[in-house]
Amino acid sequence: MIPTPAASPTAPFTVGLTGGIGSGKSTVARLFEARGAGIIDADRVARQVVAPGTPGLRALVEAFGEDILDPRGQLDRAALRDRVFRNSQARHRLEGILHPMIWEAIDRQKSTTKAPYCLLVAPLLVESGMQHRVDRVLVVDCPQDLQRQRAGARDGVSPQQIQAILEAQAPRELRLQAADDVIDNSGPPSELEPRVEALHRRYLERAASAGDP
């Protein structure tokens, strides 16, 4: 596990939202956002810290060479993925460079939120071993066959690509073991609203009590 700076003790109550491909994380996040939760997208933050001209991108070029850049000087994610995919040492080096930058940026966003609590949308929260960086872990869950069906319809990717992503993510059972809360998204979308509402009220209460002296 890559060590990261400790979260600020004054940071707002934070729920880590995670789940496998096609589980419905984005839909659930939008429902929480509509109720006033502050949303932080870990994938978006990860892209921001390696944008052209950033220290993050310069650090990656120094570590892995300029061939990880595309002709426009932006990070070629496919090239970087090929470089580290089968090389655990290179992957750990990549994580050692990026994880502290990503979490520093996440903590900055958390410190400036006006929302009663934050929802950190992090697809690889369990895989990265970063559950300790949030107050609660919320898993959006559904059967793997349904994940494949939804991912194929949404992304238009091949079954082989979807299977590769599933194999790269934590097993469903491992995510559920790490969960403090679970939203079952195996049914119709209409079932999500009351489940999100119930958890939202619970998180408001926990956030309020966390701020008590």
Could you describe the 3D structure shown?
This protein is an alpha/beta fold and 213 residues long. The chain has two domains: 13-37 and 116-213, Rossmann fold; 43-114. The chain has helices at residues 25-34, 42-48, 55-64, 77-84, 88-112, 144-155, 159-168, 172-178, 192-210, and strands at residues 14-18, 38-41, 118-121, 136-141, 181-184. Strands 2-3-1-4-5 form a five-stranded parallel sheet, sandwiched between helices. The radius of gyration is 18 Å and the shape is globular. GO terms for molecular function: ATP binding; dephospho-CoA kinase activity. Its EC number is 2.7.1.24. Its main location: cytoplasm. Catalyzes the phosphorylation of the 3'-hydroxyl group of dephosphocoenzyme A to form coenzyme A.
